[in-house]
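fyi for ur records
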Amino acid sequence: MLNLLHRAGWVAFPLGLFSVLLLAIVMERFYALTQFKKLELRAFDSLMVRLTYGSSLPTMDPADADAPIYRILWAASSLPYGPLEARQTAADIALAAERMRLRRYMNLLATIGSISPFIGLFGTVLGVLESFQTMQNAGLGGQQMAGGIGEALSATALGLAVAIPAVMAYNFFAGQVQGMVLDIQGHAAQLVPRLGIAAAPNGNTGGPGNA
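which gave:
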């Protein structure tokens, strides 16, 4: 890898930056998604117990208040005495916002995976053109020409070396996020109807919980 960076020319600078960003994003997303998953499961268990014995959204432990399911229920319970359909719509909007939160930095990861090969290819094309220009002006032989083209191809190899793990990481995290979103959606489907069942006036089951 260090040899490719040394031989790739100017494209080593943006591709080197991309490789550092790639490593940072992979580490951050792996840690964040692992923590979100644990937080979501803990908050769901707690909310299920509390909402079973009361209709109001309980105050969460500050350590669990950032859980996606709690933020969704808070949005759903903010509609005073609204119908169940309105609370479910609010929950769907909040779920979309949570999906974006779980996908943080993933667009950048996809960008790195998609443009790195093109940057490497662009460096290779410029390197080959420079080699032909030098051969024409200085009358280089085939051996020197092959050496220049070999160095130019290092740019493409470096671009692929950055792009391949970026694409693999993106696909892995996309699958993780999709699975977590399905879990959160299932949690919301179980908990949103429990909001405000006993709190509505005249026994109306469409009432809300307290935010």
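Residues 197-211 have pLDDT under 50 and may be disordered. thats all i got for now
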